[in-house]
Write a structure and sequence with these properties.
By secondary structure, the chain is α/β, with parallel strands linked by helices. The protein is 34% helix and 15% strand. It contains twelve helices and twelve strands. α4 packs parallel to α5 and α9 packs parallel to α12. 43% of the residues are buried. The model has no long low-confidence stretch (mean pLDDT 92). One of its GO terms (molecular function) is cysteine-S-conjugate beta-lyase activity. Pfam families: Cys_Met_Meta_PP.
């Protein structure tokens, strides 16, 4: 018999293999598209609704299921799906729940890309998009066609905390699914699946894991968490149909950051409160926005639901009308520690300029006229951040 060199085959099928499982601080990282079945029995005696269905990389690996389980636990839910970004997670919910002729309600302070996606669905598929005032539950008037209401607690730019209790009650009475963008609260400020003495719960939470869970400003990912198995399976089916998947390496990085997420959240929130107290004393601002401020719209709802006093590291300011766009752009360009960029939850503080006239539909009497700058607080010392803002403000005088 002819002998041959098995070097090439041995490169793929190594004759020796180290034991695969040891106990470590961080769970093992699995990178997989193909998953090897031990036998045809393992191939066929399984179903995609099994709790841990290892069949193909897009459907889940121990790495992705581990992070999903942990995110669900943090959020207070039972089931979690991961998506490549927060917006992808939002779109998964919209695609699963909404069909032609359905009605969806969104807060006037909704995350802009979500509204853009819904307007696209409205133009193409006849979905009706309705706007409500998040601090006035009476403005939410669902018809029999209503299928979904989007909630944000708090809004990511003007930071109003919604009348979550009454909005959820009205939605439940009308058989409307509730989806909460829980990125601000990160599962730490309150439990969205049990947030009142009446044990009220939302149906779905969406979380941009890009923010606090990642913590580094370098990874994109989102999550969809539910408590209801049937709803989870509907979302899971659409998740599979759309081929949604996440990188094992990115998943492992976020898993690694979860251990200190609450510490970072607390520090950034405390720094934001330090800035809040200082910003309220500055004459250039007509309004400073933060849910914990007694003057803030929706403060009473925040105080009731976030009873531990937790809040994220975001604070926004509205400049007095005499400061035009050129002046505010000069202010933003003069910041040095604050970098111009979207997102939050990372180590570097960020600032972003917004023109509310281009973002809002309803008349908002609780907001002053003027241009808005949102500060997303990082891990720098708050006194250094205050000095940075103060230096930039001096250039406006």
């Amino acid at each position: 018999m002819t002998t041959h060199n098995k070097a090439q085959t041995n490169l793929i099928h190594a004759p020796r293999q180290a034991p695969q499982y040891i106990e470590t601080v961080q769970p093992p990282l699995f990178r997989a598209s193909t998953i090897i079945f031990k036998s045809t029995a393992h191939l066929f005696d399984r179903h995609w609704t099994d709790a841990y269905d290892y069949s193909y990389g897009t459907h889940g690996t121990p790495t992705t299921f581990t992070l999903g389980d942990n995110i669900a636990q943090i959020e207070g839910g039972r089931y979690c799906l991961l998506a490549p970004s927060g917006l992808s997670a939002i779109n998964l919910v919209n695609s699963t729940v909404l069909g032609s002729g359905d009605e969806v309600w969104v807060a006037d302070n909704i995350y802009g890309p979500n509204l853009e996606h819904l307007n696209h669905l409205q133009d193409r598929y006849g979905i009706t998009v309705k706007i409500y005032n998040p601090i006035d539950a009476n403005s939410f008037q669902p018809t029999e066609k209503a299928k979904l209401i989007w909630l944000e607690a708090a809004g990511s730019v003007t930071l109003e905390f919604p009348d979550l209790k009454n909005l959820v009650k009205k939605a439940q009475q009308a058989n409307v699914l509730t989806a909460l963008d829980n990125t601000w609260g990160a599962g730490l400020a309150f439990n969205a699946f049990d947030f009142s003495d009446e044990h009220l719960t939302v149906d779905i939470t969406v979380h941009a894991l890009t923010k606090y869970p990642s913590g580094g400003g370098d990874i994109l990912m989102g999550s969809v968490v539910t408590n209801d198995q049937a709803l989870h399976h509907k979302l899971y089916r659409m998740h599979a149909i759309q081929g949604i998947s996440v990188s094992g390496d990115d998943t492992a990085q976020i898993q690694r950051s979860l251990a200190h997420m609450s510490l970072r959240y607390e520090q950034q929130a405390q720094s934001a409160l330090t800035l809040l107290n200082w910003l309220k004393q500055q004459p250039q601002f007509s309004q400073v926005l933060h849910p914990s401020d007694p003057d803030a719209a929706g403060h009473q709802f925040w105080a009731e639901i976030c009873s531990t006093g937790k809040s994220a590291g975001l604070v926004s300011v509205i400049f007095k009308p005499e400061y035009d766009l050129a002046a505010i752009r000069k202010f933003c360009d003069s910041l040095t520690l604050f970098k111009l960029g979207f997102s939050w939850g990372g180590p570097v503080s960020l600032a972003m300029l917004y023109d509310l006239k281009q973002m809002r539909t309803l008349e908002n009497t609780h907001l002053q006229q003027g241009l808005l700058v949102r500060f997303c607080i990082g891990l720098e010392h708050p006194e250094d951040l205050i000095q940075d803002i103060q230096n930039a403000l001096k250039l406006l005088d």
